[in-house]
From TrEMBL:
This is DeoR/GlpR transcriptional regulator. It holds the Pfam family HTH_DeoR. Residues 3-58 form the HTH deoR-type domain. One of its GO terms (molecular function) is DNA-binding transcription factor activity.
């Protein structure tokens, strides 16, 4: 296989999954570890990806943000596993908060029939929950065109008068020094406020979110529960003293 063909394969995998594993690339492309290492190094020099332990992840600007439709197609299997486990934690007749995001959106179908009340800032989330027969309230405020998330002072004011048994938040990036971060400062404030209103907080993040930093900090790492599909041993060891990691099977 030509080098350019390997590059196309690697970049296509990144677009669909957000992260690639070196061992999987070696098997799929039938090449040596040194070849994959050279390929990833060259693509990193071109600005196409960022190398991480055991592979690489997509390059994203700190303030760039994908639409929920784009996010839905990245790491689908991982998000589905995370979402199914997260939904299993919800008990009947609870009051929960779910923010806008592709992983929280994947939770919705598993909440049907639980007789719960959901508050969300996700326009698409609210519509889907209503179709499923779940009692749902949406926050008021400005709607972000890109993600269909509601943000702003009105949403913050409404949240201040609510309490939740569980809060589920998606997150763009998780870093030991940077903390939990997201591209939009207004959304970061709303996430932080929602986290403070819950008895239990769960961060939903696939493995591609670890080790990156976005523009606006939501929270510092301080023992929060993060639900993830699987982390490398080195990554778990790195983050284990800062957060509580719950791995789920894909």
């Amino acid at each position: 296989m030509l080098t350019v063909e390997r590059f196309d394969y690697i970049l296509d995998r990144l677009q669909h999954h957000g992260v690639v594993n070196s061992s999987e690339l070696m098997k799929a492309l039938d090449v040596s570890e040194s070849t994959i290492r050279r390929d990833l190094s060259e693509l990193e020099e071109r600005g196409e990806l960022v190398r991480i332990h055991g592979g690489a992840k997509l390059v994203r600007e700190m303030n760039s943000e994908q639409s929920i439709q784009e996010k839905t197609h990245i790491n689908q299997e991982a998000k589905e596993a995370i979402a199914k486990y997260a939904a299993s934690l919800v008990e009947k007749e609870e009051f929960i908060y779910m923010d806008a995001g592709s992983t929280t959106f994947a939770m919705l179908k598993y909440l049907q029939g639980k007789n719960i009340t959901v508050v969300t800032n996700g326009i698409q989330h609210a519509g889907q929950l209503s179709e499923l027969g779940v009692r749902v309230y949406t926050l008021g405020g400005r709607i972000k065109n890109q993600t269909q998330a509601i943000i702003g002072s009105l949403a913050l004011e409404q949240l201040s008068g609510m309490r939740f048994s569980r809060v589920f938040l998606g997150m763009n990036s998780i870093d030991i020094d940077g903390g939990f971060t997201t591209p939009d400062p207004e959304e970061a404030v709303l996430k932080r406020h929602a986290a403070e209103q819950g008895e239990r907080l769960y961060i939903l993040a696939d493995s591609s979110k670890f080790g990156g930093v976005s523009f606006a900090r939501v929270l510092l790492l301080d023992g929060q529960t993060v639900i993830v599909e699987q982390l490398s041993d080195q990554m778990k060891e790195k983050f284990d003293e800062f957060i509580h990691i719950r791995e789920v099977s894909e």
